[in-house]
Design a protein that fits this description.
CATH class: Alpha Beta
Structural class: alpha/beta
Shape: globular
Strand content: 15-25%
CATH superfamily: Alpha/Beta hydrolase fold, catalytic domain
Helix content: 25-40%
Distance between the termini: 36 Å
Low-confidence stretches: 1-6
Number of domains: 1
CATH architecture: 3-Layer(aba) Sandwich
Number of helices: 11
Number of strands: 10
Mean pLDDT: 93
């Protein structure tokens, strides 16, 4: 039994297996729960997370689908990008490479945050490849925050990006004396998590150093934002190309704005919104049972 699952609520479950594929010369990792005679369901995690972020959802749906969950570049057990640039275009390419390797079109996708942003882009570019899309808070910054970024001049944005990259270059990954200490930190970030959830996510999201301390697996450079202007008109045109049924999910206690109230849902051809009470940004953790029920119903034919 792997160290990752020794203290896991999934220790009695067979799988998932680890697989690898190549994109832009990077060796990228994904989890597969087998069941390959079932329809494919791809689960894409958010920023600074990892594929095991989906273990609870995958365990609930694994008998109905062939579930695949990638570690995005710079995350989990995937390689870090040389140079430290993590643009949405690179992530979309990685997903495209993975799905072509699986060759099981059309697929269902459920994704969170950064992963949902990637999934929305991919589905807009390849609408025929996606059967259904469930996106948890993946529409990017709320319009009020976007307006500040859009208003900044190109030289200001570029200088700000250079400063942030230089700062990240000197940032040393924080070392934790134990997994318990790191799990406590995770619960500080998301108070909705139970101690069991926090420990499982921590065990799978950390690497042990030679001195016995622990650090998060993700590359610090994933914290950076590219200096390019966030073009809302272009983004709406991408959303407008999505033809499959789309469920936009949001936690009412999250920072994300309501896409019905701010009008962004109007860009979609076939989308509906589901707000989850008592949930923050990680809806699939904060209201797991309700989320699984909604996802099961939505993803089914």
């Amino acid at each position: 039994m792997s160290t990752a699952f020794r203290d896991s609520p999934f220790r009695d479950i067979v799988g998932p297996s680890s697989q690898f594929y190549i994109s832009q010369r990077l060796r990228l990792h994904y989890l597969s729960w087998g069941n390959e005679d079932k329809p494919p369901l791809v689960l894409i995690h958010g920023g600074r997370d990892h594929a095991h972020n989906w273990d609870w959802v995958a365990n609930a749906l694994r008998r109905d689908y062939h579930i695949v969950a990638p570690d995005l570049r710079g995350h989990g057990d995937s390689e870090w990008a040389i140079g430290g640039m993590y643009a949405i275009t690179d992530f979309v390419l990685d997903v495209a490479q993975l799905l072509e390797a699986l060759d099981r079109f059309p697929v269902r996708i459920a994704a969170h945050s950064l992963g949902a942003n990637i999934a929305l882009h991919y589905t807009g570019f390849y609408p025929d490849n996606v059967h259904k899309l469930l996106a948890i808070e993946g529409m990017g910054p709320p319009p009020r925050i976007l307006s500040d970024r859009v208003g900044a001049a190109v030289d200001e944005r570029m200088r700000g990006w250079v400063r942030s990259m230089q700062k990240l270059a000197g940032r040393q990954p924080r070392r934790y004396p134990s997994l318990d200490a790191a799990a406590e930190r995770m619960q500080e970030v998301n108070s909705f998590l139970s101690p069991e959830q926090a420990r499982h996510l921590t065990v799978n999201g950390m690497a042990r150093n030679e001195d016995g301390t622990y650090t998060w697996k993700f590359d610090n450079y994933v914290r950076s934002f590219p200096p390019y202007r966030y073009d809302e008109e272009e983004l709406r045109s991408i959303w407008g190309r999505i033809t499959c049924p789309t469920l936009l999910v949001r936690g009412t206690e999250s920072w994300a704005s309501d896409p019905v109230e701010d009008g962004r849902i109007d860009a979609f051809q076939n989308a509906e919104l589901r707000n989850f009470e008592g949930a923050g940004h990680w809806v699939h953790h904060d209201q797991l049972d309700e989320f699984v029920a909604v996802a099961r119903n939505f993803l089914a034919d």
